[in-house]
UniProtKB/TrEMBL annotation:
This is Hsp20/alpha crystallin family protein. Pfam families: HSP20. It comes from Dokdonia sinensis. Belongs to the small heat shock protein (HSP20) family. Signal peptide: none annotated.
Length: 143
């Protein structure tokens, strides 16, 4: 028989909300709940980051690096339409996010970061330092 580990903390804001001592916990009311989902892939020579930012255009997104912190910000402002357009309900609104990522020691901050945005996915490529690149196994001759 195989056991499957159950993740009780799948929705942490629900458990915090149901806990009376944590009714006003920061997790539930935090602005960070609208952070874009992120995938990180480590390759031999670089790291690839993918962030899901649908509804934003290239001009709405800004990527900056300060020391070893990568900041990804986005702001999408809704345009005020005239009431005479025939709308009975409008739910489109402004949206924004900011995600800061502390880069690991293995990332080379001096190299250019490649960024590409397509179909709501922002892809970033961060090069590794030469020392962080895994070297092939060598055989040492014994004398």
């Amino acid at each position: 028989m195989s056991l499957i580990k159950f993740n009780q903390n799948r929705f942490p804001w629900v458990t915090n909300w149901l806990d009376t001592d944590g009714l006003f916990a920061d997790d539930f009311f935090s602005k960070n709940n609208n952070l874009p989902a992120m995938n990180v892939k480590e390759n031999k020579e670089n790291f690839e980051l993918e962030l899901a930012v649908p509804g934003f255009s290239k001009k709405d997104i800004e990527v900056t690096m300060d020391n070893d912190v990568l900041s990804i910000c986005g702001k999408n402002e809704s345009k005020d339409e005239q009431e005479e357009d025939g709308y009975t309900r409008k739910e489109f609104s402004s949206a924004s996010f900011e995600r800061k990522i502390q880069l690991p020691q293995g990332v080379n901050p001096e190299t250019d970061i490649k960024a590409n945005y397509k179909n709501g996915v922002l892809k970033l490529e961060l090069q590794k330092r030469q020392e962080a690149i895994e070297q092939p196994k060598r055989k040492i001759a014994i004398q």
